Amino acid sequence: MLCLFTVAPGSNAAERKPVTREEFEGEVQSLDGSDNNSRNPLYGVANTAYRRIAPSNYSDGLSAPAGGPESRYISNRIFEDQAQNLFSENGVTQWAYNWGQFIDHTIALRATSEELLEFTYDESDPLEYFAHGDGVFRTSRSAAVEGTGVDTVREQLNTISSFVDAWAVYGGSEERLEWLREGAVDGDLSNNGARLLMSEDQYLPRATERGDAASAPVMERLGNLLFAPDADEQAIVAGDIRANENIALTGIQTLFAREHNRIVDQLPEDWSEQTKFDTARQFVIATQQYITYEEFLPALGIDLKRARRYRADVDTSVSNEFATVGYRAHSMIHGEIEMANLASSYDVQTLEMFEEIGIEIEAEGDHIELAVPLNVAFHRPQLVNQLGLGPLLAGLGGEPQYRNDEQIDNQLRSVMFQIPVEHVADSQECLDGPTLNECFVLVNDIGVLDIMRGREHGMAAYNDMREAYGLDRITSFTALTGEATESFPVDDPLVDLEDPINDPDILTYTELRDADGQLLELGSDAADSEAVTGVRRTSLAARLKAVYGDVDSLDAFVGMVSEPHLPGSEFGELQEAIWKKQFEALRDGDRFFYEWNRGLQSLTRLPELQGITFEQTLSDVIVNNTELEYGDIQSNMFLVKAE
After folding, report:
1. Where is this region: Disordered (predicted)?
2. By C-alpha distance, which of 370, 372, 350 is closest to 361?
3. Which helix (H) or strand (E) holds 334?
């Protein structure tokens, strides 16, 4: 009998306990992670606390958010991108940040409270380009784990399981899953079909799919869905409540619901519906894991320690540092999604609707090219049906994502999830780029939220977090950014020498280069589409020093995104360390992980399952579930196709 060995916390080699083959076979993985680690039953389970790697950093030592410079002030001087796109230097496509979000919605979702966090910003800031609201940003504070924050350090709750287990597809409760599966909704899963519920044209079900939208599982609705009079007809239902957030995410959710049903349809007809469902779910989970570890992480330059065996002593629980700092890679998010399709795929009314909401359309012979600005893609799930799943998924692999750095696109940094002001709602001219402020008022800033979420979760300061992850402390701002100076220029006539940090000209670009190191003409089409590095009139180190004064005062998120990338990686030292530690734990502490899931390995050897495999690339899954063929997309969807 095959035995693997694990070490319980605090044990020595003589106390190792065998993990038998029977522990791996004949089991159905729970929805909430509760059956994964029998020896440490709270590891990775839904509705348990995020674990901490670094010491907490609350202003009162217990629960009050940490202080620091005003967050919008930081955002305007550090995150503002001046509408200049910088792209991945390694040719990593938009699939990376979208797959990252799919995984995020599988392993983490904070519990919220009714407590509001309010933080003001200066409406007269000379670096503020947007019309103002009421001078205050608001967000809900994360709920405290019961019993914490009074006499002990406040901890936060992860409401979903930490395992890479396709939670976003299936959800974490029998009630949600029953609604998502074909068959009656009567509280009895045993009479449900093996397939997931889909529309007639094989898109995700709408809230009205079963007639009464009020009885459908709760889904988050913001932006366009919040104000649409037919929101119930538009909103789709999936395993995770956030599936309506943007069309790329909705598209990925649709793809994997189709993959589940594709597998079900290939299983033996004489198997029970429940057995077919469980088998398909097991393959979908393993496929999500396989793509994550074999394609997604390598494309980003994350090189994990070699996997050897399942270890029950490894806590898979998502860390607060990962969820609140390291995984917040919002700089990667591209300002638009481009795709191509046959012009005959759309009728005149559809094309007119596309133009009306701000989608750019360009005819190329019998093909049509479409560019969907990010703010148009937010909370419009039915656009997936209208644009077509295949073209959308192919489009995500057509261009590199934005460079993972300190810059954040203004569609996220100033107007996230909002709709245009009424008098310009029918204009395409200001829905993206330098004129975005003509369409929108300042409402929200994801960079501000990144900073404030870290402060309210008591995240360690930048250097303290580096130390907790085994990295050396940084002693200067130039050592942090890799630049030559942390001083403002003393002889630049375009910079206010008396008060440079409040001079808008400090952010202008003076040099741009492509992936080959070639200079690009500022303001040219090439600069807009090929730049991977840029030099601004003032160094990032100088601006960080003027804002924070001391490296030890840096917010961990701000310091992390300011680090230069490691060779061949999309990350600096701290972010890479956070990712490596978390993804190694998610692998090594998951008893059902595909590399040592003996039940899964046994399934793959059944004669009845010939041709069904979890060892699929993302391009395999796309080709198997859309009209696309292998010649239409690259073999690795995470890397730009070589010319």
Report:
1. 15-39
2. 370
3. none
